[in-house]
Each structure stands twice: as structure tokens, then as C-alpha cells.
Amino acid sequence: MNELIHGGLYGGMIVGVLMTTTAMALWFERKFAARMQSRLGPTMVGPSGLLQPFADVVKLLQKEDIVPFQADRVLFNLAPPLGAIAAISVAAVIPFSADIIAADLDVGVLYLLAIGALGVLPVFIAGWGSNNKFALLGGMRALAQSVSYEVPLVLAALVPVILTGSMKLSAIVEFQATHHWLVVWPFFLGVPAFIIFMLAMLAEANRIPFDIPEAESELVAGITTEYTGIKFALFYMAEYVHTLVASAVGAALFLGGWDGPFAPGLGWMVAKTLALFGFVYWLRWTLLRFRSDQLMALCWRYLVPAGVVLVAASAVWVVWVG
Amino acid sequence: MTALLRRVDPYLKIEAYDPEAELMLLHFGPQHPSTHGVFRMDLYLDGELIVKAVPHCGYLHRAVEKLCEKLAYVQLTPIVDKNDYVAPMTNELALVMAFEALLKQDVPRRARWLRSLFAELQRVASHLLAIGTLAIDLGGALGGGTTVFMHCFRERELILDLFEAVTGSRFHYNTHTIGGNRHDLPEGWAKQAKDAIRVIRERLPEYGALTIENRIFQQRMQKVGVLDGELALELGVTGPNLRASGVDHDLRRDAPYAAYDEVKVNVVTAQTGDCFARAIVRVKEIEESLRLAECFLDGLPEGPINGGKPTKMAVQTKVPVGQTYVGIETPRGELGTWLVADGTHTPYRLKIRPASLHSLSALPYVLPGHTVSDAIAILGSLDPIMGEVDR
């Protein structure tokens, strides 16, 4: 019973906080991008346009809900909530501080990789169920991309697991707090693994330069072409949550999570997450998009071999040095 | 995929293609975000690979040529402004030059220099837009592409401001008339223009770094959409697209008009003929056009800007019987005007030869063997303006 209350409480809290953060992240991104492009960004709704994301959500809620004729109704309607659930569920194992963690699983890393991988399913379902050629092409690309990038993602996540000797996220952070952050020492293992991890996470979350499944200049809106209103909003939100959670996981696995001087653990975790998140958006508004075959080449030619070498090197390091 | 790049049969019968392959017909446009207006391609896809491409234009047809037969000569400049809506200055120029040729009308030297000056500034504005939209095609409307686009627009704005100061409108200028120009430069314009040219020149490396020096941009563009010079000549492709294929052809130098015979025009060419060559030719042409614009600005002679006789009823201007063809180098290539006059105050026939239409005719030859992503890059690199294609 106690565990149920704990789970419910933390679950509700995480979803609530995550939703608000996503909205704020949306505002931040729009302002950030606007400044990069010598524009102002949202200014009208609320002070400095702070309430713009909420206005967007309200607008999307009012939109007509259209299911295309001859679309696969069940799959079409199933995909958006599934995507949102998959993205949010990952947040369950993130250690926000030493004692704020919803489910401190012994196999935390495995859990987040597995649930994260689930995120591709709704994307493909949407592509298939929409009965739209652009959506189908987007779904095909998403599937190919996610399956490929799963491999370097797992390999990169294995490096901290091997170095710290645990799959428990809190234990990984704890290890970094007592020893060194993994990007600091051994940096020759930590930094490359961190880079591979972030690249693969970007690809998993379909962010530029890896946003090929959406590719709005090629595939109109890719998988989301036929979606309107709240369903579109769910996809949109899932994407942001995914990026946010990926940043948090990256911070926990490589940047020492809640560890840091002076400020409380939660503050450090949030700061690191937001810094990574900001970096992702910096990339997004600077870079152009890869072509899908170039993306695959990057994965299989560079990231996967590098990941394998890193895992082997970490094992050697742990046995002989650490 | 590059292994599949080959010269293909644009008239391929789909039934003749591998019957085992399940081809998908993708209607690409007309309501597609990156077809540069309303353009449609029917793409036959094998997976994501294009087997055959059939371009369809005509969605923006406004019967401009027919309209030209109904209106008086002096009323035509604002009509043709709307053809190539990214470079209206050059549209007008091609038109009035045809009238002047039949009327045997002399144009004062200052007017000719002004025309060249405007044409060069317009080229800069047009190429900036071309690069910006190309980046959007590659980088998406919600990503790095928009950043380049916005930067390019910021610079283009400076030139539109200049034109606004002269003509009072930002887009459809209606400033060229038979025998010269309608508007002279206002006070302080030369300084404003100098500043704008300096600012654009300073900022050029900024978006050069975001586009032609960017690794992703290079990977997306190099060896994609190769159009060889011979085929390009055969199809009538002109302008930067032809020069990118290694053909050294520029009407400003080869058949000078306006004031181009009085300055030296350096023609920019590239050899590879791929999308990257087309992009790089445009970027280099911006530099060259800035130089030329500065040149025209510095050497601008004094004098009248219109050599036409004052008339009570300009609408009644009659052009003697005869026919003529005038071609000028617009930012997109050779814009031709073929005028048949029957001695009345309206043209008997006015045919406009748009450069973009001929650029688009390369698509069925270039697209097969590429992916859908490349199709966007190729279309963007050809820089078509649908208003000009369909008229």
C-alpha cells in the first residue's frame, strides 16, 4: 500500500512537473531561436510571451479532430497517446536528487533503454495507420533510423554501467559523486561515450540534424501529416518530453547527476539538464538535415564501431586500473 | 545511392520498369511546402528511390501574355512585374527594352546606368532569397534552415528598402518606362546604397559558414543532381544553372545591354554541375553583383533619366509594325521578350521566355536515381519561380 501511495505521488508529481517544464522549454526554445534569427519571438501572451505555450495548447484543443477516410482508425487513434506514454515513462527512473526518484530500479539503465526504444512504435503505427504516402515514408524512415541508433545508444550507455559497476541510476550518480564525473575521469572513455550517447539520443528523439522522419520540407509533416488538434499536440509534446528526458539521462549518466558544490542536488540536476537541452536546441537551429542514407552511414560506419571499442576499453580499464 | 546516378530516359515507360518492383506514385505538390510555389511532380518511387519524375506546371497560370495583348504598351510594366516576383526589376527591363527596340528609342546614359544598377541590386536580393529557400529545403522550416533564411531575408530587406526609397514600392516597382526610368534617385540614396552594400559584404561570410562551408550542406549537395553542360544547353537552361555546369555564358558580357558594355563583368562558373556548384555560383555571383553595383553607383553619370518625348496621352503610344526579340540576364537566366507589333497601341503578340521553365525541364533527366530528399535539394538548387514559369 505504502508503495502504491509513493508511486502515485511521485508519478503525479513527475508528470505535472514534466508538463510544465515542457511548456516552459517550448517558450525558451522559441525565444532562443528567435534571438538567433534576429527576431523577437513570442511577446504578446503574458509577460515576454511566457504564456504562449499554454495559448498554443488551448488553440490545439479547440481544433477539429479529423480522422482521414480509410485510415486505420484504431491504430491512428492509438499512436499519439502511446507516444506520449512512452516518452513520459522514462522519467520514472531519473534521479532528480539523492532522494527524489520515483522508482529506483536495480535495472534502471535497462528500463530506460527499453522504454525509450518503445518510442519508435507509435511513430511507425502513426505512419502506417494514417493511410498517407508521406506519413508512410516518414514511418519507414523512423523505423530504420531508430533501430539503427538503438545500437550505439546501448553501447554508449554500457560504458557508465561498466565503469560504475551498476545499472541502478542512483548508484551510477552516487559513484560519480564519490569519485569523478565520468566526463572528467576517465575522460578518454567518458567524453566519447557521452558524445555518442547524445547523438544517438538526438536521433531517437528525431531532432535536427536527425529529424528525418518528420522532414517537413520533404515529407510535408512526415508522420504527423494527418494529425490535428490534441493528437498532434500529443506527438509534439512527446517529442519535447523525449528530448528533455534524454538530456536528464545524459546528465545523470555522464555529468554526475545531482552532484555539485554549494547548491542542492535538485538544482544541479535541473541546471545540467537544461544546459544539455539548450545545447540540443542550439544544434537544432544551426544545422541542416542529413539524408537518411548518410544518417545510416554515420551510425554504422562511425558510431557503432566507436561504441564497441569504447565498451571493450571500459572493460579493460575496470579490470586493470579501476 | 550515388551509384545509381546516371543519365536516364525521362520518357521511361513505367510498365517497362522491373515488374517485380512495387512502385509508389507520389504526387509531390502542388500543396507541398517546398515546391517553391504551386508546382507538382509525379514521382514514381521504388522504396525511396525515384524511378521516374513527371513535372507538371500551370497551377499559377494568370494569362499574362494574353493580358498583354489587351493593354496599352505603357500599362504593361506593372503586369510583368508579377511574373518573376522575386526579381521584378529585370522583368520590366526586358519588356521596355523590346518596346524601345521597335520604337528605335534612345535611352539616356544615366537611365542605362540606373537600369544596370537596379538589375545588379535585384540580383543580389534574388540570390539571397534563393540561398535562403534552399537552406529551408535542406534544413526544414523548424530548424537550421530557417536561421539561414532569416539571415538572408535580413540582408534582402536592405535592398528592398533601397528600391522603396526610389520607387515608393517594395516589390512591384513599375519604374522602367519606354525611353528611360520613371524615378530618379532621391537625396542621400547613394550613401544608403553604399552602406547596404558594405553591410551585405560584411555579412556574406556569416551565411557562407552556415551553408557552403557547412559539412552537412556539402554532403547533401555534392554529387547530387548532376546536370551536364551539354544537356543543359540542349534543354535551354540558362543563368547560374548553366554556368554551374561549366558553360561560360552570360548575356551581360556576351550581348551587353543597358550599361554592361561600359564595365567589365566577371562571369562566375563552376565545373561540376551538381547542386553544390549551383549554390556556390549563386554565392559568388552575390559578391560579383555587389562589386558591379558599387561600380555603377560610383560611375553614375549626370543627366536626364528619360529620353522619351513628353506625350499628352501615354496610353496612345503606338509601336510601329515589326517584331523583335530581346534577351537579358536575370538572376535566373535568360529572360526573353518576343514582341510582334501591328502598329496599334497594344502588342499583337507578346511572348515571354522564362528562364525558370527551362530550368525545370531538366528535372525528368536529373531526378531519377535520387531519393525524395535529394529531389527537394535539386528543385531548390534550380531556383525556379513559379510565377515566371506559368505566367
Query: Could you report the average pLDDT of chain A, rounded to the nearest whole number?
Result: 83
**What low-confidence regions of chain B span 5 or more consecutive residues with pLDDT below 50?**
1-7
Q: Which segments of chain A are poorly predicted (pLDDT under 50) over 5 or more consecutive residues? A: none
Q: How confident overall, as mean pLDDT of chain B?
A: 85
CATH class of the largest domain in chain B: Mainly Alpha
Query: Shape of chain B, please?
Result: globular
**Which fold name is given in CATH as the topology of the largest domain in chain B?**
Cytochrome-c3 Hydrogenase, chain B
Percent strand of chain A equals: under 5%
Helix percentage of chain B? 40-55%
* Extended strand count of chain B: 8
Alpha plus pi helix count of chain B: 15
Quaternary state reads heterodimer
Looking at CATH, the homologous superfamily of the largest domain in chain B is Cytochrome-c3 Hydrogenase, chain B
**Which H/E pattern describes the elements of chain B?**
EEEHHHHHEEHHHHHHEEEHHHH
Q: Which structural class do you get from the secondary structure elements of chain A?
A: mainly alpha
Query: End-to-end span of chain B in angstroms?
Result: 36 Å
Q: Kindly give the count of domains of chain A.
A: 1
The tally of beta strands of chain A, per DSSP, is 0
Radius of gyration from the alpha-carbon trace of chain A, in angstroms: 20 Å
Principal-axis shape of chain A:
globular
Task: Please describe the biggest sheet of chain A, giving its number of strands, its sense, and whether it closes into a barrel.
Answer: none
